[in-house]
Amino acid sequence: MVNRNKGYQIAINIVMMIVVCMVVLPFLLLIMSSITDENVLLAKGYTFFPEKFSLGAYEYILKSGEKIFRAYGMTILITVIGTLINVGMSALFSYPLALKNLPGRRVITFFVFFTMLFNGGLVPSYIMWSTYLGVKDTVFGLLLPNLLLSSMNILLIRTYFSTSIPDTLYEAAQIDGAGQLRIFRSIVLPLGKPILVTIGTFSGLAYWNDWTNGLYYINKNTELYTIQNLLNKMVSDLQFLAQNATNLSSSATAELSKVPSTGVQMAIAFVAILPIIIVFPLLQKYYSKGIALGAVKG
Length: 298
Hints:
- The chain has two domains: about 1-45; about 60-295, MetI-like (MetI-like fold).
- Helices cover about 75% and strands about 0% of the residues.
- It has helices at about 1-35, 40-45, 55-60, 65-100, 105-115, 120-130, 140-145, 150-165, 165-175, 180-190, 195-210, 210-215, 225-245, 250-260, 260-280, 285-295.
């Protein structure tokens, strides 16, 4: 039995090592490609061990230093505010649906689920947000459309509240005279920390990686560009110049040839995901803390 368990542990460790390599190696290749000389990259392709290193891609990005920092600030602002509102609204919406004695609970849940299957489409949504609500070229154009509230998040939180928090806690709180708002603040939120952190992570990633809202609703006020919109514009400009190189003057063509376009794309991808790589491990402690708080004490 001991040898069998030992063999099982070895097999599991090997599988986990393979999975970790599959996750880590693409990031490593991305980093190495971003610091590889452009000529070597074009001649030899992507490799973990480049023949010649170069920071030309990052130097090209840093030429727009002020724009980069402003875009980072805008992205952080939108991500923090949007995530807090998203999690708060989702939790407030989910808690009543988790109460088994709520009148019309099944009907409301059906309408929430229905919006996951059908929506008005892109054109009606664009007309509503831009024409009737006037979010174009404002910070609300990055904050409100598409990402503010998710029916999937509501159903996930509702399921967690109804299955992972014992009904006896609700009943004991009501016997002690606590109202629904007090129960939500003192019991549901602390014990629901694992799912709230999870949903917050999903929402934060969605806001951080979003570039469609900036594409649709930010047209003139480029100071509102997020990091994704700014980097996407830089890639588009490089592609446009490369496609129209024959129409440029000889001096402009010479300057364009010095731009590490392939390396810039790799560097842009790394710059965009770097904050997520740094922040995500810091959230791990909240999962274990929330699980510990959720344990029913005897």
